[in-house]
Amino acid sequence: MRFHFPLYSSSSFSLVSNFTFISSLPLIFSSSHFSTFISMAPAFEPVSPPHQEAEPQTATPHHTDTVNNFGNDGQVVGSKSKVTVVGSGNWGSVAAKLIASNTLKLNSFHDEVRMWVFEETLQTGEKLTDVINKTNENVKYLPGIKLGKNVIADPDLDNAVKDANMLVFVTPHQFMEGICKRLVGKVRGDVEAISLIKGMEVKMEGPCMISNLISEQLGINCSVLMGANIANEIAVEKFSEATVGFRDNREIAEQWVKLFSTPYFMVTPVQDVEGVELCGTLKNVVTIAAGFVDGLDMGNNTKAAIMRIGLREMRAFSKLLFSSVRDSTFFESCGVADVITTCLGGRNRKVAEAFARNGGKRSFDDLEAEMLQGQKLQGVSTAREVYEVLSHRGWLELFPLFATVHEICVGRLPPSAIVEYSEKKPRLSLLEDPACYQ
To answer: Is the keyword Oxidoreductase in the record (predicted)?
Structure first.
């Protein structure tokens, strides 16, 4: 098998050579090709249960219903939070289901969960929001799953968010800038937000993570939730994990953990917003590559190699953009687990497989419209955005997998190029500065 991109050895990829090898895994990853990747030692940070946390400081009230006093068990005393989910696709509907099951049980939250729905007219002539509120089911994006009677679909974005002090954003990332512009001045600065969105915006000044876009546009703190989360499996309550990335306030992180956690959905907080979010974003590019491999019937060995190389590039890219990114984050659900599950299943892999089986002759737009019934791909647009960053900064030769995925997607290379060898050697000079990884 010839690879278009080099299988980096530990000597050629010096940027990761200073980390400690995990002695417990040598039998699994004995090849020198794996040694530098496995050196990302998972320094698991201990997470104290909510009841062991010190009592947090009183928050500035947003209005009379916002969180302002915590008891020793982390529950709010005398006030309740209101939650709105901004987005109602496949994953947005599952998120609303998870949250609604918990708001009924937790005294710190109002029972009702608002879900903003981009209004559509169904083939029956009915409005999607009306059908959701009548049947308690998103018949277009999550058919057959009851969301919870306390989920209220609302087609008016302003109305949906006006009373909320906890906002959950879960829409295709390409729509978020427009949504944020619509919400400017409509939410208070002390609202807490969390993004479940996997993608980034690329501007003239450089890449902007969606959580940063939300924070900058709306002036609010934004955490993130990412993980090995195929929505349809969580919808039917198959066990899954997720990672909450937070910045400074662990009490807020624990509130998000409580809001999402169920017996079948385990959530872990990590103080690394950029690392968690970039894992969720970049894995979709790797998944497109895995789909090409499946479409060309190249087998599991090739697919495993693509996944390993993809993880390597995810880590290097993340740490070049943000030196604060933690190595241990890549061992959380948002990292290696998310890469595995989306390379085995999920919409990006599925459509990329069809693209390769058609020899790249049918566009991703056509395949998306035919195969996803209104859902959106993230991997193709993310590959383009990553390529723009790499090209602008002169990093294309450092990330041959990422670059190749985009070039296949736009038709400059055939799908088979995903495993074709190139004589070009990666330029390592940009990655040799240890300061990048402190």
So the answer is: yes
